[in-house]
């Protein structure tokens, strides 16, 4: 249990530092990246490219394992289809990101730095997550698209 908590803490700390160093926790920098027809700042494209490259390697290696490095069962996403829920969720994520310059990870980092805009964003995000959970329970529509997992059988 301690190893899992320490691993989660170190991973979160590394992720947060990476968001700060890359500028992803700065809404103005993010909005500059999204402003394709204005004063476009392409620097975050390199950050995203690096993240995609690391993710591709990590998922390739993870697909060859049964357990995490800490010995826990390895669970990878099982669904690969693109459905209406995924499209609507992606659209909502993108619109929110474009309107305020935050997505959830960088918003939490900025919240830790005491940025007022992040406080409002995180509060709205928590309310939205609660509303989603309430609607899920009332509608009974099954597993959340991004939450379906399977054990790796290699």
What would your notes on this structure say?
With 154 residues, the chain is mostly helical. The protein has one domain. 64% of the residues lie in helices and 4% in strands. The protein has six helices and two strands, in the order αααβαααβ. α2 packs across α4 and α5 crosses α6. It is globular. The model has no long low-confidence stretch (mean pLDDT 84).
Spell out the blueprint of helices and strands.
Elements: H1 2-22, H2 27-34, H3 43-62, E1 75-77, H4 84-100, H5 104-112, H6 116-139, E2 149-151
Helix pairs in contact: 2-4, 5-6
Global Rg: 18 Å
Our estimate of the beta-strand percent is: under 5%
- In sequence order, what are the helices and strands, one letter per element? HHHEHHHE
SS elements, strand count: 2
Number of domains: 1
Sheet/helix structural class: mainly alpha
Provide tags for this entry.
about 150 residues; globular
In short:
The chain has 154 residues and is mainly α. The protein is built from 6 helices and 2 strands; from the N terminus they run αααβαααβ. It has helices spanning 2-22, 27-34, 43-62, 84-100, 104-112, 116-139; strands at 75-77, 149-151.
């Amino acid at each position: 249990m301690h190893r899992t908590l320490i691993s989660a803490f170190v991973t979160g700390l590394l992720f947060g530092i990476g968001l700060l160093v890359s500028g992803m926790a700065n809404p103005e920098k993010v909005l500059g990246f999204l402003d394709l027809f204005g004063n476009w700042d392409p620097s975050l494209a390199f950050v995203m490219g690096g993240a995609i490259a690391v993710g591709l390697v990590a998922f390739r290696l993870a697909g060859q394992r049964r357990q995490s490095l800490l010995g826990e069962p390895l669970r990878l996403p099982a669904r690969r289809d693109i459905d209406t829920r995924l499209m609507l969720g992606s659209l909502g994520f993108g619109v929110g990101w474009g309107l305020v310059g935050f997505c959830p990870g960088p918003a939490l980092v900025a919240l830790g730095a005491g940025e007022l805009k992040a406080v409002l964003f995180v509060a709205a995000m928590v309310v939205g997550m609660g509303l989603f959970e309430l609607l899920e329970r009332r509608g009974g529509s099954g597993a959340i698209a991004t939450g379906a997992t399977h054990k790796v059988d290699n």
